[in-house]
Structure formats: C-alpha cells, structure tokens
Design goal:
355 residues, alpha+beta, 5-stranded antiparallel beta sheet, 12 strands
Length: 355
C-alpha cells in the first residue's frame, strides 16, 4: 500500500474516536490542508483520496444529514500515549528541533509533527529516573551571534510562511520586492515571478535563493547560466503562492552555492593571494581558525607575523579585516592595500587627526 504525501497529510489531520470532537467534514479537511500548504484543486479530488483511504481501512466515515464526516482509525491516541513510547533521547531531539529550527519549517511539516513536539514535552516532564538529566540538557545549550548582534528586522509572518511553504512544495512565487534603503509605496513594485530554491539564515537575516524563469540561459549573449538571486525576506512586500509547480533544477546545490560560489560572502571577486602582517595575538587566532586552506604563518623582524593564503575577496572578508583595526596591515594585493589606505585617511579625518 503506497500513501501519497497528500494522503499522509490527511491522516495527520483527521481525529480519532479518542478526540473530544472525533469527526471532521470534508470541507474542514480541505481547509486545514490548504492552511498547511497542500493544494486541493477541487472537492472531488479530496473525496477520491478519502474513499481510497477508507478502502485501505485507514479511515472511516459516517453520514450527518447531507454531510459526510470522517475520522482516522486510531493507532495512537494523543501525546500521552506517544510519550509512553518515546525515549528520553528522542524527546530531547524533538525539543531541540523545535527550539532551533522550528521557525524555519513550513506549516506542512510543523503541524504534522506537533503531536511529537507535545509528546516530547510530556516525556521530559514525567518523573522518571532519567528525566532530570535529559530535561536539564535543553537549558544547557544555546547559540549566539558570532559578531555584535543588531536587532533583527521584522519578518511578515504571512510572507514568511508563504515563501517557506512554496519552497517546500517547489511551487512558483509571485513577489513584490523592495530594494535596499527604499520605502515601498502602494503598488509601486512590479511583481516578480520566481522559483524559490532554498532558504538561508546569515547574521540574523533570512535569504531566499531564487531562480527567475523569465531569465533562462542565453549563451549567445554571454549568459550561460540561469539568473539566480538572493532576496532578503524582510524586504519582500508581498508573496503569493501561484500553485504552479516547477521542475527543481538538478544543477543547483545549496552547499556548493554557499561554500564554492560564496554568494553569502556578498559580491565575491576572483581569488587572490592575501598577505597580512598581524600582531601576535591575532595571528594566534588564525592558527586555530585558518583564513584559507593554503595558509602559511612566519615571523617578521618587527615581531609581527606574516600570514599568507588564497582567499576570495568579498564584502564579508572586508568586514573581517576592518574588525581587526590597527592589529592588521594589508601587504598584498596592492589594490586592496590602497583601498584600505584611503579608508584609513578618511577615518583619520573623521576623528580630526588627518593631515
């Protein structure tokens, strides 16, 4: 017996005879499916799926006037019964999942596994011999920003869930997007047709990696690849799930986009050999966390350390170099050295110490 993703979602939604309200109408089921991102184009489609599940003895129905009501044949009833089967390790795992990535999951996922989250809470609250240590673990772990944390921009919850759901189900989006430092005015932004490929959080900001179906590769014009752009979710004015599925591109790999193309370092440039003169304390940190795979360190006559390695110049690399202040001198490449020299002169003038 093969169960489709839609049928699985139906089974997650349906109540059992152990519920306070054990029956659900077809229209209620359709509404909940839509809320969780599952498309039901017409009622007959849903009725056929329900009839199939009834034939497979997974659900049952009853008549109430002109309505047909449905419930799932019970195999587990409620969080308490699930908790009795859940180990403490599994409970900790579900608790951590909800805490650290719960807000990044589409409703189609979180609402389906909400009983497991509740069961995890129930399991950890039980007075068992192993409960205290496992319960305490979730208060012993956390994450912090690697740099000074600015406040996070407001994310429209409806926009966020629309984007997450469309990304999960691989459906086309129509978005209106506000460019940086520009306040949106009513209907002043032309909708873009996009295929959402991935979501990435970086330094407190959430980005969508999207492909434009209106800009296919044009090798004859020197554009051999699809147009793929980063969109900050807090700058999306509106998002509409078109309901149209797209063929997920086989050549797109998020990990390669992050690690090799380094698009999240922002405006990456060709690799260069970076040579720095660093104070010993900062050089020591680079022994622990290297700036490149081919990094070398050697002492200089003035007591500083010479650090050399191949890097991709980018906005993030410049942010890091600026954060070192006077502890670093850029020796090469000459273009980057000149860029920072001009910044140093401008900075000195700001503080009234320039020539």
């Amino acid at each position: 017996m093969t169960i489709s993703s839609l049928e699985e979602a139906i089974l997650r939604i349906l109540p059992t005879d152990g519920y306070l309200d054990p029956w659900m109408s077809t229209s209620q089921i359709r509404q909940l499916l839509e809320e969780r991102g599952h498309r039901v184009d017409y009622p007959r489609q849903l009725r056929r799926r329900l009839d199939k599940l009834e034939q497979d003895l997974l659900v049952r129905s009853s008549e109430s006037g002109r309505n047909r009501l449905w419930q799932r044949n019970s195999w587990l009833r409620g969080a308490n019964q699930v908790a009795s089967l859940m180990s403490a390790s599994e409970a900790v795992a579900f608790h951590a999942l909800r805490r650290f990535v719960g807000d990044k999951l589409p409703a189609a996922v979180t609402k389906d596994i909400e009983p497991l989250f509740q069961a995890a809470d129930t399991r950890l609250s039980q007075d068992r011999e192993d409960s205290r240590l496992y319960r305490a673990w979730v208060s012993k772990i956390d994450s912090v920003e690697p740099t000074y944390a600015l406040s996070r921009p407001h994310l429209n919850p409806k926009v966020f869930q629309t984007v997450v759901t469309a990304t999960f189900f691989e459906r086309e989006l129509l978005i209106r997007y506000r460019q940086a430092y520009r306040e949106p005015e009513a209907n002043d932004v032309t909708p873009k047709r996009l295929w959402p490929l991935a979501l990435v959080e970086s330094a407190g900001l959430v980005y969508m990696v999207a492909q434009s179906p209106d800009h296919p590769p044009r090798p004859d014009e020197g554009k051999p690849n699809w147009l793929r752009i980063l969109y900050r979710l807090d700058r999306i004015v509106s998002a509409v799930d078109s309901g149209s599925k797209f063929a997920y591109p086989r050549d797109f790999k998020l990990q390669a986009t992050i690690e090799k193309e380094q698009v999240f370092d922002f405006l990456p440039e060709p690799p260069v050999l970076l040579e720095l003169a660093l104070e010993p304390a900062e050089a020591k940190r680079l022994e622990e966390r290297r700036m490149s795979k081919d990094q070398t360190i050697e002492p200089l006559p003035d007591g500083r350390m010479k650090i050399t390695g191949t890097v991709v110049l980018s906005v993030k690399l410049r942010w890091w170099l600026r954060s070192l202040g006077a502890a670093v001198e850029i020796v090469a490449p000459a273009t980057l050295r000149d860029e920072f020299a001009r910044e140093a002169v401008a900075l000195a003038k700001c503080y009234g110490t320039g020539a």
